[in-house]
Each structure stands twice: as structure tokens, then as C-alpha cells.
Amino acid sequence: MTEPADFEGPSASAEMLHQLDTAPRTYAPGVKLFERRTFDLDLQTVVTPEDVESWLLGAASKIVSANALVEGFACRLAQARLDVARFALNVGTLHPQISGYSWVWSTLDGICDEIQIAAETLTTDAFRKNPIFRVAEHGEVFRMLLTPETAEHRSPLMEELAEAGYSEYVAIPLSASGARYNVVTMSTQQAGGFTEAQYDRLLRLLSVFALHVERHIAGRITKNISVAYLGRNAGAQVISGSIKRGSGMPIQAIVWSSDMRDFSTLSEQQSNQVVVELLNRYFLVLAEAVMRHGGDILKFIGDGMLAVFPLADFDSPKQAAEAAATAAQEAIRDLDTLNREMARAADWRRLQSGIGLHIGEVFFGNVGSAQRLDFTVIGEAVNITSRIEGLCKVLKRDVLMSASVASLLDEGTEALGAQSLKGLRETEQIFSLSCDI
């Protein structure tokens, strides 16, 4: 069966799905499959609603995965003879690009999917015409029997459910601390839909389930904010409790330092709003290239960006160097593409970047005052990388690197000889990287 998400629309393209195969389900544009669990539901095992409530008040509190929680809860609802055949949880979150998450469980295919909903999805007509919109926005309860008499009032999702043999669709708001309600949708294939006794028991169980949902949302928001503002590795360190000044660890990494060329001139000639818009476009290109190849962005400083490719995240130093070099090449290439596309825009100014790469040991951890900390990398390798990047304008090259990085690459480098680095006594053998890929 093709299992629609509660956010309706055509099937998503393959590249939107993190390379996870969605078959036998399809999801709408802006919806990405994040995690899939499969289950074998044993309906010969019968539990009572009281058993489900005891599970919610006990063992469920130890479940870390939201997907496992939804699967466990929905399976128990079915085993409690409440005749839930499809269950979906929809929640909001704080994230720069994601408006929320959904978990979709169904007995028809034995799958429980966790999916991400892009922010722009909430503005589409498909979402606003979906009954779930009023449930999320206004806390309304929605129930509809999927009978021939209701056919003209059904949304495309409910039409698909009716064709698959479902007899009733229910959307119920859960208590929420945010502006929108979290929403649970349930469908049954029982003739005549849910009985009132079943519905009342479901409402009671959902009131307890809602507490777990809030717990998982809070954890997800904490993770999203930490990663968005601190980076992947730093965010994970902070979440795990590494928040004391001086805490951290030495790591081996390819260090990336980049700056926009002629940013001072741009700032003088353009309004702050235009500069911010240009910076966002510029950083989008560079950041996407770094993250696409396994790098971790630590901070943006004015027009500068600091990132690392930790060697521990790759199979070998060579693989880390190749990832960093490829990211740099793609960043320069994509900037050129952006410049060509935006050449006719009135406020557009050609964007160029200088990128420096070096390998070495850095201290990855907390620095700052007792009340205000920053999680970053410090060390000689960072200073050398910054100085190498500073040579890009002088040597008229887009990407420069130290000999220690160049030695890990098989091709595409050119020796530029020993160069003096500002503020450092010893010279460094510098190589340029071809950006023709």
C-alpha cells in the first residue's frame, strides 16, 4: 500500500529522502523520511487499556527514541482491542529549516516512519485545506466516517484511506507548550468506525501519552538549537554535559578557514539589509559544501567561517583531506554559479571567497567566562589555517593549503613555494588547489 503522510501532495523526489527508500510509501514534497522501523504485530497477545496506561506510566518513560515510543504505543492500542489500524503523531519544533516531525504507523505495511516536515510546507494550500490544520492551529477535534455519504467532503488523504478500507479518520489535539497543538490522527478499519467506548478510552490514554510527547519534543528542540548554533560535534558535546569552562578534548582535524573577498568595500557601499542578504547567500553555499562532505561548521565571524573535518569521523586522514578539498572546490564552483545566476540583480555584487586548509591538533572545547562560554577550537593549527587563508588574495588563488594537506591528495595541487605567514616566524610550504572539478 502507498501510505500518505498527513501532509498531502505528490511523491517526494529521491534526493529529498536522505537516500532512504520510502517504498512502499510515498510522501509529499517537503517531507523527508528520516528513520524507519518495522514491526510484527501479534494480535493474539491481548492487553487491557489499563496495561497500556501502566506501560505509559512506567517503561515508556525510559524509551529514548520517539519512533520507538510511537511504535510501542500504537501496537499496544491495537492489542488492547481499540482497533487502531493507523496512527500518526504530528509535532512542531524549533529548527531553521524544519517546521515539525511526524511519525506514521500502520498495520497494513508493518512500518513506523519518522519524517521531517520542511518549514515551507505549512504555507501550502494542501496543508491549509487539510483538517489537521484546524486541529493544530485551533485545537479542534475532527472526526469523519469514511462512508459514501461523506465522499464529497473528504480530503485526498481521507479518500486514499477510504480506498484502503479504513472506516473512520480522527484527528485529536494534544496539549502543547508552543503556539500550535501537537496532533494525533487515528484510523480504524472496524465497521462503523470507533465505538464511543473505544474513543473514550483512547482519549484517556492520549492524555498520558501527551506527556511523553512533550518530553521528546523538548529533547528534540534542545538538540536542534544546539546543533544549529554550535555545530554538530559541539552541540553533541554540550547536550552530553560538557558545559564547564575548560572542558573539552584535543582532536586531529583538517581545519577550514574562509573569508569573503572585499567584504569591507561591500559593507561600505551597501545597506546593512543588503549585506545580510548577501552574507546569507554566501554562507549557504560554503556551509552546504562543508556539511555535504562531512565537515562541521563551528562559527561564522563577520564574513569568515571556521570549520573542521575531524579525522575520527573518516576512515583515514587521506579521506578527510579529500573531503575538505572537494568541499572547497564545490564551494568555489557553486559561488561562480550563484554569481552568474544573480548577475542582473540590482543589488548583486560578485561574491568571492578565499579558503585555507591545514591539518593538525586542536583543542575542541569550552572557553570564555564563568557565565558566558563558547565551544570552539583553538591551537596553532587554527592560527596557521587562518594565515594560509590570508594569502589567497596576495597569491590570487581561491583555495590554498599547507604541505601536510597537499601530501594527502593525489592530484589537483600546485606548489607555490615557501611563504611567510603573518605573525609566525617560520615559513610554510603552500600549495594551491585547482577548482576545476
Structure explained in plain terms:
With about 425 residues, this protein is α+β, with helices and mostly antiparallel strands. It folds into two domains: about 15-230, GAF domain (Beta-Lactamase), CATH 3.30.450.40; about 240-435, 2-Layer Sandwich (Alpha-Beta Plaits). Helices cover about 35% and strands about 25% of the residues. The chain contains twelve helices and 15 strands. The protein has helices at about 50-55, 65-80, 125-130, 130-140, 155-165, 195-230, 230-240, 265-270, 270-290, 315-340, 380-395, 405, and strands spanning about 30-40, 85-90, 100-105, 110-120, 140-145, 170-175, 180-190, 250-260, 295-300, 305-310, 355-370, 375-380, 400, 415-420, 425-435. Strands 8, 9, 10, 11, 12, 13, 14 and 15 form an eight-stranded mixed beta sheet that branches. A seven-stranded antiparallel beta sheet has the order 1-4-3-2-7-6-5, sandwiched between helices. A hairpin with a 7-residue loop joins β6 and β7. α6 (about 195-230) crosses α7 and α9 runs antiparallel to α10 (about 315-340). The longest helix has about 35 residues, at about 195-230. Residues about 1-20 have low confidence and may be disordered.
